Amino acid sequence: MRLYLWSSLPSLPQRILRGPETDEERQSAHAVAAYGAHEQWTWPEAEERLKRAYKEGGIGLWAQVALREVEAEARVEREKREREMRVGLDT
Predict the structure, then answer these.
(1) Per-residue pLDDT of the chain (91 residues; tens, 9 = 90+)
(2) Cα–Cα distances in Å, from 51 out to 6, 23, 54, 55?
(3) Cα–Cα distances in Å, from 26 out to 32, 45, 62?
(4) Cα distances (angstroms) measured from residue 63 to each of 4, 13, 80
(5) Residue 49: which residues within 8 A CB-CB, separation 6 or more?
(6) Residues ≥6 apart with Cβ < 8 Å to 35
């Protein structure tokens, strides 16, 4: 499938994976999912943000927001493990 996409649409992967090029593109990603704004991160809320990003900016904005959601989930999981480790050490 990848080979087919690369051969038929060679610029597609570059277009999807590129970073924001203008201030407007950067701000649109912040408007949908600002850094540090999701202290109580949950999948249902993330899913809504991803839907909103796709509606407002297509696959490019969706990809930017998806990356932020993955980072937010990782941060939440890391904090959860650290809390569990502290509790384990305290007992």
Answers:
(1) 667 766 776 666 666 656 666 777 666 666 666 555 546 888 999 999 999 999 998 888 898 889 889 888 888 888 888 888 888 776 6
(2) 26, 22, 5, 6
(3) 10, 21, 12
(4) 21, 12, 26
(5) 32, 33, 65, 69
(6) 68
